[in-house]
Automatic annotation (TrEMBL):
Family label: Belongs to the TAF7 family.
GO terms for MF: RNA polymerase II general transcription initiation factor activity
Name by which UniProt lists this protein: TAFII55 protein conserved region domain-containing protein
InterPro entries xrefs: TAF7, TAFII55_prot_cons_reg
Species lineage: Eukaryota, Viridiplantae, Streptophyta, Embryophyta, Tracheophyta
Length: 106
């Protein structure tokens, strides 16, 4: 609320942590904070952002940062993950690798 006027706001997670620095003598920088969230204030007519993560950063070079700079999560087959997990547990318990793969010698 500013004066008598109120504005809608949203708390959003940034796609990357931003470090802020402070200087007292224009030569030595002192790290003051790691910023991971921001408050987005908008007009009443503007729609609320989708989700809790802001896909852009704070500066123009970080536009669409989530898509451009970070890998997509891999599409993993749940059955394959369970099978590999089971094989790893068996190997840790001392079962021979060649027995696990139906006669294949590794």
């Amino acid at each position: 609320m500013i004066g008598d006027e109120s504005f809608p706001a949203s708390l959003l997670d940034l796609p990357a942590v931003v470090e802020s620095y402070k200087t007292y003598d224009d030569s030595v920088l002192i790290k003051t904070a790691d910023i991971g969230q921001m408050i987005m204030v908008r007009d009443e007519n503007d729609p609320a952002p989708e989700g809790v993560e802001y896909k852009h950063g704070l500066t123009p070079p970080m536009r669409d940062a989530r898509r451009r700079r970070f890998r997509r999560e891999p599409d993993l087959n749940a059955d394959l993950v369970k099978q590999v997990e089971k094989h790893l547990i068996n190997i840790m318990h001392g079962v021979s690798v060649s027995i696990l793969f139906t006669g294949a010698i590794c």
